[in-house]
Amino acid sequence: MTFRNDDLPALFHHTDRAAVSRQRESTRATRAQLLLLVAAAAAAALPASPELGGVHLFGALSALAYAGVLGVGIVATRRRARPQWQLNRSAAEFIKSLAWRYAVHGAPFGTDVADPAEVYRTRLEKGLDELRKMGWSDPRGSGQVPPGAEITEAMERLRELTYQVRRETYVRDRLIEQRTWYRRRTEVSRRATALWSWSIVLLTCLALLFALLGTFGTGPGARLTGLLSAAAAAGIAWNEVRRHHPLIEAHTLIEQDLAAMMVVMQTTITQAQWPSAVYETERYVSPQHTDWLARHSS
Fold it and tell me: Is the sign of the CA dihedral 169, 175, 179, 181 positive or negative?
């Protein structure tokens, strides 16, 4: 028995796609603003530009770049890309976690529950109702996702199998899969952190060098120093937006917790302890737990 993302409800797939789309939109807006700020500083740092109808060309380009920053910011605020990204991601991970817990008899959908499907739907609607209060748009209300398909055939099929099969499927297709994802994201964040850290150091050292030369009346002048400072500031801002360093620590800790839980699930966990063990594992991989670790490690 295998259980993949394709076996999850359609509501998960829609919210997951919406989260990815909104994340890209938010990231593009932030990147565009930072690039426009650097471009504006670069245009302002250029020497006297040719005039076109009495207008200094480089000065006009600088002004247009600053206006572009304001325009992108206004559009991003109206679109609410970042809040919608976070809400859709929370909804998608909540649905995925609840579906897994239902399929493998995780708490509160253990073997002794009289009507697990009804408990599942009640828990699902209660959790999504909290997200709706925060501004999440339920796609079922607009007809994008048909209502009544919250439990898939694959979820029911896995739930009907024996404890040993459910345990093996959960460990392989959920726990190990999540460990691999966290390990991969940690490596990506490490490479990005190293790249941006060295870039910021290089830009700052160049700005320092030119500033020192300027104290003795030599060097390229204050304009280039200002441009390098703007570029370094943009790099720092981008690094903070991407949260590479705190996520490295958070993802590493979660991977360690999952590794320990995998050993326990394969050795000492009994069938009676299984529901609470699944519940605890799902708590580790929740976005709220990741954000909490990231905040406290930064």
Answer: positive
Last residue of a domain, one of 160, 193, 224: 160
* Prediction pTM value: 0.89
Give me the pLDDT at residue 142, please: 83
Q: Please give the Cα distance from 27 to 29 (Å, whole number).
A: 5
Q: Which residue has the tokens 């160049």?
A: 206
Give residue-wise pLDDT tens across range 68-91: 999 999 999 999 999 999 999 999
Higher local confidence (pLDDT), 173 or 217? 173
Whether the CB-CB separation of 36 and 72 falls below 8 Å is answered with: yes
Collapsing DSSP to helix, strand or coil, 56 comes out as strand
Beta-carbon contacts of 107 under 8 Å, excluding residues fewer than 6 positions away, are 101, 275, 276, 278, 279
SS3 7: helix
Report the distance separating Cα 84 and Cα 17, nearest Å.
12
- Asked if 8 and 150 sit in the same domain, the reply is yes
Total domains present in the chain:
2
